[in-house]
What does this fold into?
Amino acid sequence: MTSKQRFIGATAAMARLDPTQINALRGLMCDDFDALIDAFRTDSAAQLEAIVQAVARCDSTGLRLQAHSLKGACANLGADDLAELCGRIEHLGRAGGCAEAEMLLGALHIELRAVSAALAELMSRSLFPPAD
Amino acid sequence: MSEPIRVLVADDNRTDRLLLSKIVALEGHQVISAVDGVDALEKFRAARPQIVLLDALMPKLDGFEVARQIRREAGDAFIPIIFLTSLTEADELARCLTAGGDDFLSKPYNSLILRAKITALDRMRQLHATMQDQRDEIAQYNARLLREQEAAKDIFDSVAHSGCLAANNIRHLISPLAVFNGDVVLAARNPAGSMYVLLGDFTGHGLTASIGAMPLAEIFYGMTQKGFHLADVLRECNRKLKDILPVGYFCCATMVDFNFQKGTVEVWSGGLPDAYVTRSGGDPTVAVVSRHLPLGVIATEKFDGSTEVYELAPGDRLLMCTDGLLESRNGDGEMFGSERLMQILERHRGGDACFEALRTAAYAHMGEQRREDDLTLVEVTMLDEHEIDAPMPNYVASGQIGPRDWSLSFQLGPTSLKEFNPLPLLQHVLMEVPALRIRGGVIFTVLSELYTNALDHGVIGLSSVVKSTANGFASYYQRRLDALNALVDGFVRFEFVSRASDSGGYLKIRVIDSGRGFDVAALHARRADETGAYHGRGLNLLYQLCDSLTFEGCGNDVEAAFYWGDGSDGSA
It folds into this structure.
């Protein structure tokens, strides 16, 4: 990974994360900040998988609950764009629109990966290299 | 920082849970985490947190259902619930509160706001707990108060209503809660068979009122059964109440002495509404006005025990009431008043239905807002003595073995004759003789007849003929009072001699007075014509009651004798 790539990644990440919220979280969590990021990265990946499966089964309740839960976590971490995307999927789940939801899965995938990478950049000790 | 408490954090999302736990822990509180609704309920039951943070949407059991369950299980305790939600629509947020939440916190969490909410809700929780403690305390206090009042009522009833209120010539209406309205009705017979009835109305309500009734009843029953006069009983009641009651507290009372032998009622009334004498023969009803201050107001030296005497024929009645009847109001706020009362009394003119009619009218007047608590009415009817169904006093003496060979001489000079009633004292001495106790009433009657004769007709020299004229009683008693006040010399002397053995004994009562005496032979001659009329020195009665009655000298020296068993004194 070049330093230029790193820089672009960081810029992109900052664009997707609310810096005020991130600063507040750092101040609040102190030493536990990394653990918080780690928990989000791990759990959000699992939730994305659950959302994909719910769409495949056309399980609108499962879809709604998973999207809602992920939305809350994203909001708490200042990932506002991702939170908004989750909100749209949650809304579709509520309305039983599995097909429309499916069309948003690609965007969800990309956005989540970007947020996850940006968050990893913020950790004091990077466990995983940021995604390309 | 507030006192550390236990906070349950229930959120299915680990990121949110970590964040919340951190915020709560930083406040110094103990965090209990739950990962879904079912877990939340289990943790709630196990750890009994003081505040609950609940994610609205959770797998297995959503936050709304968890909140309902917590509310059910918490019972009276107030457990503040804050809903955590990324819901944004107003109706969803409102649902958090209608489901039993006390507040909500939207994502993204703001730690400042959450901390403030926890502090505020914890303050409410403490306030609620304090209120609950106080409520429990009040409930306990109230229960104790009720128990004490029950006990007080039992004691009050057994003291105040222990007399002969159930007698067949007494009708009364008194609230079962009289202990709390200060009304008291006392009735008992004295050793001579007269019936004393006292209606009292203490100022105030509740315990103050009933406490005063205790000594009043004790004195009334104690002195009545010992044979004290009405005025003596009242004077003692007044003294006692004056001593014990706080300033401003007193007892309005009317006390009557129904003498069935003489067919008279003697009335003292202090502060109660008019009593009424109703005549079965059709004569108009007479109001008996209060002429004295209530009991417990004035000092003993100034107490006025003067009474009024009314002659009653069998069937005539006396009605007494407290102001509860007269002041009871109807729907328009109009008081019952003495005019209504008088109308009813006049309509019935001493008839048997009068009491019932009065009660019915009173209830009809009060209508819906009927307050029987304050309604106290007493009606006493004059009957022939043998028709009265009410127990005579029981004598309780110090032991079964009394004096067997004794004598006593007791002389009263003019000052004592004016001021002192010797009968209870003498009766008390006589009742120490076991064999005399069962005839206590008879002996007291004889003693008091002999004393009245000696004093009224002997020392003072009044003629009993006065009493047989119209208004005779009133003028007789007035003359008696005047003569007593003017008395400067004279005496009445009692001489008792009693002997007893295992097989029998006797008591001789000799009464000598300083009067001029009378023509014994003439009186005896007249006695043959009499048909039980009262005047004539009550001789018929004395002859009936004593085993022997003899006059000596000029008639101012009389001896009554009682024998029991074989009448022997053990000396033969």
Notes: Chain B touches chain A at residues 12-16, 18-19, 22-23, 26, 55, 57, 59, 84-86, 107-109, 111 (CB under 8 Å). Residues 531-535 of chain B have pLDDT under 50 and may be disordered.
